[in-house]
Description:
The complex is a heterodimer. By secondary structure, chain A is of the alpha/beta class. Chain A is about 30% helix and about 20% strand.
Amino acid sequence: VSGAGVVRTSTIVAVCVLGLGACIGASLTHGGGAAPGGQGPVRAQPEIDRSRPLAPLAAVRAPAGFGDRALAHVRELTSFGPRNPGTPGWSRQLDYVTAQLQRHGLTVQRDTWTDRKELITFTNLSATVRGRRPERILLACHHDTKCTTGHPDPAHNFHFVGANDGASGVAVLLELAPILAASTREATIELVFFDGEESLDWTWNDAARALFGSRRYVQRHRDALLLHQEARIAAVVLLDMVGRTDLHLQEELYSTKGLRETLWRAAVACGHERLVFQRAEAASDDHKPFLDVGIPAVDLIDLNGNPHWHKPTDTIENMSAASLQIAGDLVLTMLPEVERDHVLNRN
Amino acid sequence: MVAAAPRRTPRSSRSLAATATCLVLAATTACGGGPSGPVDGARAHAHLRTMVGFGPRPFGSDALAKTADHITAELTKLGLSPQRHELVHAKEKKTIRNLYVQIDGEDPQQGPILMLAAHYDTKLAEGHADAKCNFPFVGAIDGGGAPALLLELARVLKERPQKPRPNVWLYWIDAEESVDWTWNDERALLGSQAFCAFLGEQKILPRVKAFVLLDLIGDENWKLDKDGNSVGKLQTIFLDAAKEIGVQNRLYEFPTQAELEFYRQRGVDWGTKDDHLVFTRHGVPSVLLIDFARRIPEHLQDLKPNQKPMLDDRYVPWWHTADDDLAQTSPDTLAAVGNLVMAAWPRLEDFALGKR
């Protein structure tokens, strides 16, 4: 993922200054702090008024043990090592996710392709739980981890297993799978595991060298829509980094405002307000390609102020079952409302 | 597979036979050795030993997954970017792991592709109804030597001062072997079929201008057969290269003229079913370099009454037997076959560029 604008690595924002049009790189820490020179991060003002009462939602709790089981998935996935495309860990993860979904009677789709320019082979995985209507809500995450080899700066080359950044979203989706598979809804739910989310360059390189999986997914969806081969995607709920011990889900400012409100209402309903929207910042992530074509999307993300992001410390030791349980609560509480707003009341 | 067939040589007599063969061949080549060239047989053989060390490596096995990891790790060490094309085969319910890597040519994104490939899975030799088909099979030659050599060729090609003109793809093929003990078209060549379908979807296939397949490479007394399903021009390229480096006596002894006549009279096409056939069917000019003739033991030759087994004292019939082990292999063979490929290299590039 990337913070707002050109923000990336923990830290660089390119600010165009000087009359000659030169670009100066200025340092900016993720925590919402101001950059030297007084330049603040782009889009970091909260927009949801948390003091204004919104219509309450009914809390839907994740079942007991959800967080523990999700944490066990994280442990297993991180034991595979780095999981960027082409690595052994990536290969093991594809099989693991496939097998876990199949355990719950789900059929797993693999979409494998080679990016023309990068010559990297990626694989998205997905599984669908059919509802009474074909319109679908995507519950999504990325499964790849940041590539931490071969960068020119040696400080960017280290052993990285992405417990939070990669495995946490996968783990929560894997635990949501049996719950969703056992229930029948109006909307169809698709669990999607994107590949190639992470920027190939260490510093976030816009969309061109990142978000490969989601860009591919959106492109294929648009083609299929034109040919009437698929129903529309009603909304996307994306999970990225939802499991560290000191969880805080920022108000991600690219996300569709109505869905952000739904997330906040879910937090209130479940009593998790203190962990949600205390800070705000836009972050480029797999929801962006959907937003770009007008599909409502929300990103449950813990990037702002996350000290382990793209660090060797993003390990199982800094993860918590309680945080993963909270992520489960929030998604399950949001889901009926997302369904009402974006499927039932749209028809 | 369609093939001729040799007699099983008792293991104890093998070294004697090999020595005798070497003496005969010593006039043109060193015993078991190959011509000098950039390919380091010791390095290739080290890869082979690592692979064999994982044990039997049939499609879908953990040992094959480890082999895949070894290959990708070695390629990464070379500064290359190995890619995995993976899928769970719908019927077999096992993961196919095709591995490939590009060594950039003049136009990495759009340029023609010269592909060198070898299967790295080994024959499944357990769980068969016939107990004779169940034994520890490590496939040192069949599923070991060629993929190991391909790793060494990756090093040679990456470290060469001049970069290739076409893009070079090195491709390690999974699931070549028939899952059934007896060859079953429905359950063999699954990896290359999936890979070709993938390349077709990706619109990469039209860029693949030549496909060179290495299989059954590594026997200490090596030879290469003239496969009936290969493109003549590519076969000639290898023969010309062999003449230049003095190993032409290793090439194309089989099938013999008598065999070809035998097949011709019966209207049977001579040719080997292997992964190159999949590429051929997709319109890619292909060649198979294989040491297969006379390697099938008598008990695996489907002999009619009064039919003589096809064997040759010079060639140990290790195919799909426990004799296909490390002891049967030689670093010199890997070097020799690798250096043959490198001797043919400029012509292969020309072919891929449409200049031949």
